[in-house]
């Protein structure tokens, strides 16, 4: 992963604690990582954690002319090789599927031309809703890649499908997208 530039979007789900482990693993593999956090993500994990892990400031504001005169959604999109959103909440999936851009992360997802990888995480009831599954299907049709949620113990104190995939599995998917196997 040496020399690769990645943007990791962190949205507002309890699985954000796993995103810290993912970011650490990506940095240790030699990638340059910039984290974009939504306001809801800050309810679960602090930006200081990601800044310490990446050695870079966390980007949160849609407008930041001092650090990103062209706009962070433009500058980050231009320099990154891949955009990963983990956790990708039902809200993020809905915004991405419909093209809604009302915060930095959703605007970045629209302006990014490279591979996008989503790692959904939510309550099992939410994951199974037809609206969420329609959004996932639309995003797959649009060429977005997924590391599907896993079955297990959820923060709502239930078992079911909805927990974010393990950081190792997400990192492996990122590696696979950036280094596809050669066809002989």
Please name the defining characteristics of this protein.
single chain, 184 residues, alpha/beta, Rossmann fold, five-stranded parallel beta sheet, two-stranded antiparallel ribbon, 8 helices
Short note summarizing the structure:
This protein has helices at 16-28, 47-54, 72-79, 90-98, 104-111, 124-128, 130-141, 167-178, and strands spanning 5-10, 32-37, 82-88, 116-120, 145-146, 150-153, 159-163.
CATH class, anyone?
Alpha Beta
Shape, per Cα inertia axes: globular
Radius of gyration: 15 Å
Helices and strands, in order, run as EHEHHEHHEHHEEEH
Q: Give the beta-strand count.
A: 7
- Taken together, the total number of domains comes to 1
Taking pLDDT < 50 over at least 5 consecutive residues as the criterion, the unreliable ranges are none
The CATH architecture classification is 3-Layer(aba) Sandwich
Beta-strand residue percentage: 15-25%
Judged by helices, strands and strand pairing, the structural class is: alpha/beta
Number of helices: 8
The CATH topology comes to: Rossmann fold
Rounded mean pLDDT is: 91
Helix content: 40-55%
The rounded distance between the terminal residues' Cα atoms is 23 Å
Side by side, the strands of the main sheet go 2-1-3-4-5
What name goes with the CATH superfamily?
Flavin prenyltransferase-like
Biggest sheet character: 5 strands, parallel
What's the helix and strand layout?
Blueprint: E1 5-10, H1 16-28, E2 32-37, H2 47-54, H3 72-79, E3 82-88, H4 90-98, H5 104-111, E4 116-120, H6 124-128, H7 130-141, E5 145-146, E6 150-153, E7 159-163, H8 167-178
Parallel strand pairs: 1-2, 1-3, 3-4, 4-5
Antiparallel strand pairs: 6-7
Helix pairs in contact: 1-2, 1-8, 3-5, 4-7
């Amino acid at each position: 992963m040496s020399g690769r530039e990645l943007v990791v979007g962190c949205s507002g789900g309890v699985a954000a604690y796993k995103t810290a482990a993912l970011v650490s693993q990506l940095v240790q593999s030699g990638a340059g990582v910039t984290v974009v956090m939504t306001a809801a993500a800050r309810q679960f994990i602090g930006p200081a954690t990601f800044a310490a892990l990446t050695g870079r400031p966390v980007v949160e504001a849609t407008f930041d002319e001092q650090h990103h005169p062209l706009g962070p959604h433009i500058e980050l999109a231009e320099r990154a090789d891949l955009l990963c959103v983990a956790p990708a909440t039902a809200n993020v999936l809905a915004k991405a599927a419909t093209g809604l851009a009302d915060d930095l992360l959703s605007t970045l997802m629209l302006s990014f031309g490279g591979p996008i990888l989503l790692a959904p995480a939510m309550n099992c009831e939410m994951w199974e809703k037809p609206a969420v599954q329609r959004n996932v299907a639309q995003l797959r049709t649009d060429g977005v890649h997924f590391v599907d949620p896993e079955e297990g113990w959820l923060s709502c104190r239930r078992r079911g499908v909805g927990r974010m995939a393990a950081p190792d599995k997400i990192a492996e998917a990122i590696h696979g997208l950036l280094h596809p196997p050669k066809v002989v």
